[in-house]
Fold these 2 entries.
Entry 1:
Amino acid sequence: MNKFYYLIGQSLKKKIKSKWFLIINILLFVGIILFINIDSVISLFGGDFNDEKNVIVISDISDTNVYDTFSSSFNNNMEILNNDTKYKISFSNDNKKDIKKNIDEDDILINIIDNGNTIKAEVISLDKINNVFYQIITSSLNDTKKVVSLYRSGINIEDYNNINSNIEISREVINDDKSVDENLELIMGTIFPILILPIFMLSILLVQMIGAEINDEKTTKGMEIIISNVSPKVHFASKIISGNLFVIIQSLILGIAFGIGLIIRNNIGSEATNSILDFSMIIDTLTKTGIMDKLYFILPLTIVLMLLTFLTYSLVAGILASMTTNIEDYSQIQAPLAIISVVGYYLAIMSPMFDGSILIRIASYIPFISGVLSPALLMMGQINIYDVIISILVLILTNYLLIKYGIKVYKEGILNYSSKDVWKKIGKALKNK
Amino acid sequence: MLKVENVTKYYGDLKAVDNLSFEVNDGEIFGLLGLNGAGKTTTFRMILNLIDDYYGTITLDGEKIDYSKTDKIGFLTEERSLLTKMSVVDQIVFYGRLKGMSEKDILKKLDYYLDIFKISEYKNKKIKELSKGNQQKIQFISAIINDPKLLILDEPFSGLDPLNVELFKKVILELKGKGTTIIFSSHRMEHVELFCEKLVILVKGKSVLEGNLKKIKEDYKKKKIKVIGSIDVDKIKKIKGVIDVEETKIEYIITIKDDSVVKKVFDYIKTVDDITKFVVELPSLNEIFVSIVGDKYDE
């Protein structure tokens, strides 16, 4: 038993003490923290995005106050879209030619021109205008055009707004399992791929790591000495356990980096609200959809699924590695495993498209992909807790069978140095008593 | 004592080892000889319990060898079995711990053996940075670090120069003196002759010659007579029982069929005036090996 624990510790120590582990984790740590605080980082380095824009409006229209209409709409749009760009808006009586001659890089000249029953406009600037800011100008000009046109056509603005306003909808979903807010699909489409990416990457890492370690010992014939001192069963178990412990440690490190990133964001990055990662909005949506209330079972189930899936991958990786003699052969033989993993990842991120599909529900029971697919479907409300329990039971059964028959294959293959007829050898090993 | 009794191993339809039996007493050095593919490595693997699906029995001190006994066994593989990315000290600690030793004992023994093999300065170097000969020394140290009761050496002198062979020889004889049972295989018959008291020669998994080395040599009928003097080669060749006469720069080597021919040759030699040397020599192990294995291999 001491040798078993020693092998686990030795294997784990070898991985964790390597300089690559340290370098990669420092990079990951820094990368995650920077990613979470990307808006603050961009602001920190400065740039012209904080310079005050000077919006100058000129117009030849006299029957209505187009400047008031335009500036009011512009201010509203800036507020609605939560745009941080600093600006100053003013009306000028100077002519276009004079303003153009002295135009500065932060100046934007808007010339609103009479066009029969309606208006048209010119937008003049020294350089390209930020896309969002330009959209706000366009939208405000459209609003102004609408007001001028309605006035000139004798239509009351309130009547027009009533006709044009959106219908009021009261939304109710009777099935408690289903998400109440369709915005969740948007969140799942953007945030979920980021969240499950580490699981996917760690599965691939686990397969590669176990294969490389076993093949390293086989290639150097060190395996002869190891297996003459510990049984193949003990060796197999030590590799699987150390590999899984490693990915758990790696997951925790990623989690800690994510947590530190959030803490930093809350403390120093709170002013930056124009981020793609607007956590308050995400948490708000998750709360509204009821997912936050269900986290007490979604989270443990996801962790159990994840751990069982890691175990499945590592068992198959260990079995395949025992039958190969070098890392090149192993890379070829483990390719289907990597493909299955990629399929699972894509199915999970595309899950909002498969609402109600029986096929996708059955796919969520399949080992290897259930680890990422089941939690995704559960959060989307496409499957329920019983489906996840089925996935877990299928994984437990798969792992049991892999251990039972995998040890036979491992024992047969671990001291076999022929790379010929690998599948035939596996078949033969399975038939052995 | 190691006892191998009627051991047979099949790989599919191929009989890799065929009804092999031998005994090695404590403090004895035993040679397991044969061409490549003769079944030597399979036999070693069966002794080490790396292969357990064989017929017959293998016991160490009367008990079947399993993982509870392997701490008492040392094994040096024919090919390098070192994890080359490790440092020397890490490698020996790793294998030593797998033998159930404490790290403190391993480090103490490691320092002792590194000193004996004159490679103390490589203690913290990576295995891959060492020369082939020094790697072989590390591999040897890893096999004996636990003071084994049974030591299996598969081609131990591979990659070693004559000075290092002497160092190995010294340590092997020290272990023998401590009562270690040693089995080794080698293609170099002069090394086998140096150490082994007993041996077995395998051809296609079957024992074709076994027993005490001295007795094997004595019992081997073909002998050589070495002569210096002006002899008539044609006359010698005509003596019944003389197989061949070879002339070297120094002497004549007369190969005879058996001991009965010695007197006939001597009777002729007595007639020659300037004879300064007449020696009847036992055959070398190499000659016996080539003769027996060659004959059996052709069958």
Note: Chain A touches chain B at residues 2-3, 6-7, 10, 216-217, 220-231, 415 (CB under 8 Å).
Entry 2:
Amino acid sequence: MNQEKMSYFKVATRILAASFKAAPLWIIADSMGMILSSSSYVLIVHALQNMFDTITHAIQNGANFTSLLITIFITVAVLIFNELMNAVCNFLAGPTALRIRGAYREKIHKKVSKLTALDFENAETLDCIQKAKEGADNGIQLYHSVSTLLTFYGPYFVIMAIYFYNLRPVLVWSIFLMFVPLLISQIVKEKVYTKLIDESAPIERKVNYYENEMYKKEYIKETRLLGIYSFIRSKYEKELKLFCSKRWDSVKKVQMIEIGLRALTLMGYFGVIVLFVSSLINGYITIGAFAAVFSSVNIMISFMDDAVSNYLGDMLGIYGSLRSLVHFLDLPEEDGVDDDINYSEGINISNVSFKYPNSNIYALENISLHISDGETIAVVGENGAGKTTLVKIISGILMPTSGDILINDASISSYSKKSRFKYVSGIVQKFGKYKMLLKDNVHLSYPDNPIDEEKVKLALYSADFNLDSEKITSGLSTMLSRDFGGLDLSGGEWQRIALARGIYKNSKFIILDEPTSAIDPIEESLIYKKFRDIAKDKIAIIVTHRLGATQIADRIVVLDNGKIVETGTHEQLLNSGGKYSVMFKTQAKWYSDMKT
Amino acid sequence: MKNFSEYIHIINKYSPKESVLITTIFILSGFCPIVTIIFVTDFINLAFYSAGMGTINSKIYFDVAAIILLYGYNLMLPAFQKLISEKAKINIRKKYKSILLEKCSKLEYYYLENAESWNLISRVLDKPENIIVGNYTAMNQIFATSISVIGLISIIIAQAWWAAIIIVVSCVPLFYLSIKSGKANYKAKIDSSELERKCEYYSEILSDRENVDERSIFGFTEMVNSEYRKIYNKAFKIKVSTRFKWFIKTKLGGVFTALAALIVIVALLNPLLAGSISMGMFISLVNAILSLKSNLSWGLSFQIDTITSGIEYMKDIKNFMSYEERLHALDTPVVQDKITSIEFKSVSFSYPGTDTQILKNVSFLLEGGKQYALVGPNGVGKTTIIKLLTGLYTNYDGEILINGKELRKYSFNEIKGFFSAVYQDFSRHEFTFKENIAIGNIEMMNTSYIDEAVDKAISQIELESLIENLPYGLNTNLGKIHKDGIDLSGGEWQRVALARAIISRSPVRILDEPTASLDPINENRIYELFSKISHDIMTILISHRLASTKIADEILVFNEGKLVEKGDFESLMNLKGHYCQMFEQQRSWYQ
């Protein structure tokens, strides 16, 4: 993945443009608020100067009480205006960021749906998605930094510089006196900080792990029975001690540097004060101007600090993840034509081989097979023989490394994703346990059509899911999973829902990849009988460990090490005495009456 | 208020030095504005004077130095504060969190299985050091702000007492409002957090690897995405309206200080014109009020928010501390030499806080040296029996007799001595390979016999070839938390768990569906192996695969919380009851 070539400017422009598109009104309002807020800070200085000068004048030359009161009221009004503007732009930053974030997320989700399933076998892609999500959050940061610098700090310092220049040109230097130490600080931090902070992190992971061993549900049953608390505790304490000392070391170093850098800032402050005091004493500026500036120096320095170390620093720090985001959005997408696939000629698998990325071994080698319309195929073989991979390739989830899948003489890869799966349904090995309503869990398989509750019920019934159980408190609208206040289901119940999901979708081609792995064998046989109905008039592929269940298939395909070693009906294979018959006899032996 | 002082108590006890330091630096910072007023007054008066005279009074240098020093103190304060707080956090993590952790490890088991108490436990153990130090700091900050405000007001009292009174009186509703909206804020946070979790979850469905197959086949991205948008917008509304209220509250403080400035300025105008206070004093007072402004409008709101949720947290801690503990929960097992019998006499059981009876009047007798299998559909109480036997729950009705003595009359560490177990959800301990096995017999672990015992378990479970491939052999760290750690596959971890069980000297061995994810051929291989090495002790096996249960001397069949059949394989088949029916059903596939 070639990420290096994009320039910061290009990345930033794209992100900023996308941000603006996501929330234009909020962004405009936010920027207006910031401009007003920043000018209100300058107004305060003006108002204070005016007030102090008027009062000084009054002391020296006798008072005009009304004009005094007016300047005071103006000052206070400016103060209140400043508070309000400050509130407005700080408030607006929140919803603006949320809007942008939501839009980015949706964009990422859509993009993910356009990637191929093969991409997900690649650790780099997963990493990329993770980084893109971080990038989305940092995109907000970028927007915020840029807009704050442009519409808040920028105008503020420019106007302040003009103000200073008008007071006395040499005073403009005071801006540099504040800026330079902070800039140096920022450079030092960039260089030294990042290295220091991370030292204790890997040890902290260990500490957290041992903490979990002491009390988390997944460990405590065993921890208790084995009586190994003290053992874990001593490991925990050893790592904790190490962690604490490492952590303290890094914090100490970092804060010591920080203190040193702040001393630098203090010198800047000193310089500014000297500059202004000498101007005052030499009579270049009025007492009012001096007092007004003096009361704003703190704010100016803290603004400068914010602008340099937070905003400017952040903008540079997040470049990496922003680039990931842009890179992710630019990943190649699947294409293909939209067309109604006609299964009447069956599916032709021609010389297909498949290799997972980063693997040297072929998961499938030279597979050729023709499946007729309406046929039910069972795929058997030991763990790791390539059964699931084969099913994923035939159904179009994965694309073969070489060879082709032809439907109606057209390669499956020439169809768009949408048409490829239009009539495909089933249950995959990694079926989802969606934390949603029961009915939504089923409806997910047919999302482009409005939900049909009767059909949902029928699908659940076909999958042998017990809707009348007392724990299904709200019927189809029962929330599933504890996380969102719903109920917990057993693995078997979840699998039945997944099955119902597969049944609910109108399909012409159905895949059943170990559809009963989490269901008691006791009830398993009942469900297998139903598969006959489910698979009727469709192309069906069943993957199963339970060799006895293959009898519902028209044909059995035996896989071994990625190759088809046998095909045939149950009887044919049993008689041929090959791999299938050996496996079948081993399993059947256990059910003979003889005690082993 | 009591919950409040609890924080002070904790930090004083576990990090006394740092607590004093934190308070000291904040008291000093509280006095800073007042001292600043004094020097600034003097400085401006002198500067004013010098400007008038055209000569410089050298005392002005002293004032400038003092002002810079004071500013420096404020500038350095965050760094010092960070340093001290970090030390305090480390101390509290070391000393106080360990207490919480130990308490949690000792709890009665049902607290860990109950969703509500588990949530509380998770909250309590989630970085208590940050919450405690954070709250203590917030209290000190409020204290410091109070000192500044009181100091400022006393200066004003001397000039115009009535202005001071107006300011003090109008302070009261401001504080009240702050605290009240702090609470509302806390509630709103909880409301939106569920929606937020939901959004995160939907985002996960739409972008993770686990769901890629169904996402492709069913193409539900658009539908879930629009659901995501709906929930996101709902959370958006709550958050924005909360934020809006928070800003009103916060900025009320700011507007208030601006008005206070107005009162002070007007009040001081007369004394200023009359010459009873200097221009310097006037300017420095105005400055002091302005710098307090940001403190009051941002800081105070934030600190009150921290404290409001801090009070809730302390309530959680108190609740947690009142949870009952299981005696001997942390002790090592007291090895029991022999098992002659385990007998259930009319045992009934419901999980605490629920009404459903999981076990209904169950009676049976198990004898030493035999192998037993518990079978039946999911959720009929097989695993519950194991939980009762291993002493995790003791609130059953009826009697469970071990070697003729009621289970509840044994101490917990004696009960532990009877059993070793491999669960379906066995733990994957990220220790070394050797430790992973050796902890199965913790008593022996520190003796010289352990090496031999581990070697024996390894050869029995046939783990040699796996170890050969590990970089440091037996001393290789397993799992992902160690830099040089090696993660095993699911099946390999499973075999390590089995080795852990067989190294134990306990007379009863329990296998609770430890092989559910294996294919039938491999499962059978494991059980045959196990029965071979367990011939002289009692084993209790739970499995769905009926063929695997044939090796048992006796099979106990459960249905709906009751024991329905019991006997060896042949007698159950002859009985033609549940077991036979289930077995025939499975067998029918192979005919």
Note: Chain A has a mean pLDDT of 88.
